[in-house]
Amino acid sequence: MQTVKYPQKGQEYIEITKRATSNTSEITERVKTILQDVQQNGDAALKSFSEKFDKVQLETFQVSNNEIKEAIALVPEELKKAIQTAYQNIEKFHQQQVPTINVIETTIGVKCWRQNSAISNVGIYIPGGTAPLFSTVLMLAIPAKIAGCQNIVLCSPPNLEGKIHEAILYTANLCGVTQIYKVGGAQAVASLAYGTESIPKVDKIFGPGNQYVTIAKQLVNVAGTAIDMPAGPSEVLVIGDKNANADFIAADLLAQSEHGTDSQSIFVTDSEDKLKEVEIAILQQLELLPRKEITKKALENARLVLLNNLDECMDFSNFYAPEHLIIQTDNADELAQKVINAGSVFIGAYSPESAGDYASGTNHTLPTHGFATAYSGVSLDSFVKKITFQKLSKEGLKNIGETVEIMASYEALDAHKNSVTIRLNAKTNQD
Length: 431
What we know:
The chain has helices at 11-16, 25-41, 43-54, 65-74, 77-95, 134-147, 166-175, 185-194, 211-222, 246-257, 272-286, 292-298, 310-320, 332-336, 353-358, 394-410, 414-425; strands at residues 2-5, 104-107, 110-118, 121-125, 151-156, 179-182, 204-206, 226-227, 235-240, 264-269, 303-306, 324-328, 344-347, 384-392. It is an alpha/beta fold. It has three domains: 2-20 and 233-361, Rossmann fold (3-Layer(aba) Sandwich); 25-227, Nitrogenase molybdenum iron protein domain (Rossmann fold); 393-425, Single alpha-helices involved in coiled-coils or other helix-helix interfaces. It has a six-stranded parallel sheet, with helices on both faces. Strands 6-5-4-7-8 form a five-stranded parallel sheet, with helices on both faces. Helix 8 (185-194) runs parallel beside helix 9.
């Protein structure tokens, strides 16, 4: 952990808010090779990569109904209940995002409106391994289902037995995922982007992953497949004052750090005493964590920052644009109104980031690496296109016709002008 006291805006802010990065040029070249192989060789390439990376030989990739039934039986009842509770809250929050269609008459006889149209085919990537993210299935499949996506295709890496984690399969089944495939890594992204003999091509790809997955998504995006958002390692910034609970803050910082060695946690305060308390609490709690080594490595990217006042703390947060922002101050509600850049905000001492990660209802797929300055987290909007409509009566065209004719004429687009003029001069009773 690095402690920084009273940094100045400008270069000092830039230095202490740097994310953990690595040289990705070598990884990018490897990913390009994987993408090309899958695009050219389809299932044969996927089988080869499964054997090479997952250490398993697969004859088929799609998860069968029997496998789903077996997985459902293996999930403990307490976990099923927890997932169902989270499902209800996430569904309730995202259901409220369905818009009402408002028809606006901009001029008499000219009616305009906008409505959602679901993206027909979406792909969801869910990491497996030591932390199978079944919670991300909820966050992606639920809004996809509410939006009305016809095909929700999920890819997740198999284990050494050639199976996907049972909690992922249970959650996917609960959420109405239409097809599930045992494919991981960059090759999964390639299969969703290009399609293979077994796996259908999708229109947009969602989901987190390691550097290979992240780079693969970026590359297929450049080639024409939509993705949810640019992504990087997970991060949190916590603002705390002199009365904040140091144990709560330390727990939040460690929760973020255990995601991976490249995660970043930042604590910002106007109290030097609180800065010291939080540092001590972090070291104490760290010793009790099962993922201690991963977390300890991630703490090398952590920052403890002392500033003059809470307004400066908020300015610093807006400069950093964190994926997750936790505000644990006496005036937390007031301070939250000054948030400009953040993926998701957690207000008050009893609003841990993990609540949003799992069950409060908001989406945990959020912009990282400073992209919160321009990007939003995943929502219902991520799974739809917004199409505008207009309907003009003859009277309506008369009312705006001259305006269109003049503007088209000055742009030297006579055919545009004529499309109005011909209609206005036509001898017809057609409405």
